[in-house]
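Letters spell out the chain; backbone shape is given numerically. Both lines appear below:
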Amino acid sequence: MKKESTSIRPTGIRYFLKTVNRIHLSSLLICACTLFIACGQGTNGENVESPDIEEGDEVTEALPQETLRLIAETGDYIDYIFHDFPISFSQGEPSAVRQVVGFIDPEPTSMPEGCQPTAIVAFISQGEVLAEADLYFMDGCSHFVFFDDNRNPTYAHPLRQQGKQYYESVLNQYFDAVQQQQQQ
């Protein structure tokens, strides 16, 4: 099945942002800012792990390369909202958008079965949502799953090793900040 649209303009993140009361901890914000400054200086050249696709798995189509290129070239903001943790953050630098696009293996893969999304990610350009995806990176899962206009999962891509390490570091910093607050 061929996809006609090269851009995805979902509304789910806008609704979610309006209805969710976000909790911000000052120490978490400081840790997160430090992490993003430190992690933003990674390299783009890395070995890519091939996704584990078992026989019989239905592989989805890849997000069109022109859409990934559009996100990388025009995206200026990323919003993250974690499902099971009181974490939400934004990155307002085009270099951060390019870094995250670099975490996405361009090869398609099967939709993750038995996996729960860790966070929802919105790629934004000048206030307009370019694409929205669920991010899976816990319990052996590591995927980006992009949505169509009706919020149906449409494109699945593996998460590169560098992306796995980055998001694990985000959660580790959160857990460290929570532990420090509990000790005070």
Q: What stands out?
A: The radius of gyration is 16 Å. Residues 1-56 have pLDDT under 50 and may be disordered. The longest helix spans residues 161-183.
